[in-house]
Write a structure and sequence with these properties.
With 236 residues, the protein is of the alpha/beta class. It has one domain: Carbamate kinase. The protein is built from 8 helices and 11 strands. The strands form 2 sheets. Strands 4-3-5-2-1-6-10-11-9 form a 9-stranded mixed sheet, with helices on both faces. β1, α1 (25-40) and β2 form a beta-alpha-beta unit. α1 packs across α3 and α5 (139-149) runs parallel beside α7.
């Protein structure tokens, strides 16, 4: 296998499945099966999941919530999703731990890099909820941070689209998909992939990003095996 340890970022909205908001048990099950298969192959997997299917801080601020309070609500939403994914993984037969960047035992163990790394070495899937624990940072930034500090070989961004395009493919049918692109080219072309804090963290620390469609069963193993099904973003 090409990778020893990865950080997998999952979208909260993807957990909706065909629903509008909330969590789809069917989508959770397919994610858990893919992650279990990858873990069984020997890849160590840390996961950060968003909370947009429940509450998004920026949206709350636009509707009148205090931004800091809204972001704190969004952090709690990521922990709800983390617990849901843990349940699905354990039902699939995977060893799994939830760690939280906000102290809230017994819901989850308080996050430390060394403890998370120890769990990964011992075959656990480690889900890290609560974002960075600070307002004004997205779960993309939390994912980049955790991936870097845990020494991940790659940042895997599992989304509902199959890679990075020159424009929104749902709005522009002439949009071109990139199989591979550099960080500098993404900056130059002003492509919207993730928030710029997260993107810059990955670039400055040499953490390549794989953007792929996680909703298609089997894709996680395919991209782990090196198949060009999504888009690779590289330093050079």
């Amino acid at each position: 296998m090409k990778y020893r340890r990865i950080l997998l970022k999952l979208s909260g909205e993807s957990l909706e499945g065909e629903k509008s908001g909330g969590i789809s048990p069917a989508r959770l099950k397919t994610y858990a099966e893919q992650i279990k298969q990858a873990a069984d192959s020997g890849v160590q997997i840390g996961i950060v999941i968003g909370g947009g299917n429940i509450f998004r801080g920026l949206k709350g601020a636009s509707e009148g919530f205090d931004r800091v309070r809204g972001d704190q609500m969004g952090m709690l939403a990521t922990i709800i999703n983390s617990l849901a994914l843990q349940d699905a993984l354990q039902k699939a037969g995977a060893k799994c731990k939830v760690m939280t960047s906000i102290r809230m035992e017994p819901i989850g163990e308080y996050y430390s890099r060394d403890k998370a790394s120890e769990y990964l070495d011992n075959g656990y899937v480690v889900i890290i909820g609560g974002g960075t624990s600070n307002p004004f940072f997205s779960t993309d930034s939390a994912s980049a941070l955790r991936g870097i500090e845990l020494g991940a070989d790659g940042f895997f961004k599992g989304t509902r689209v199959d890679g990075v395009y020159s424009a929104d493919p749902e709005k522009d049918h002439s949009a071109v998909k990139y199989d591979e692109i550099t960080f500098d080219e993404v900056y130059a072309r002003n492509l919207r992939i993730m928030d710029m804090t997260a993107f810059t963290l990955c670039k400055e620390n040499g953490l390549n990003i794989e953007v792929f469609d996680m909703d298609t069963c089997g894709n996680l193993m395919r991209v782990l095996g090196g198949e060009k099904i999504g888009t690779t973003i590289k330093v050079k």
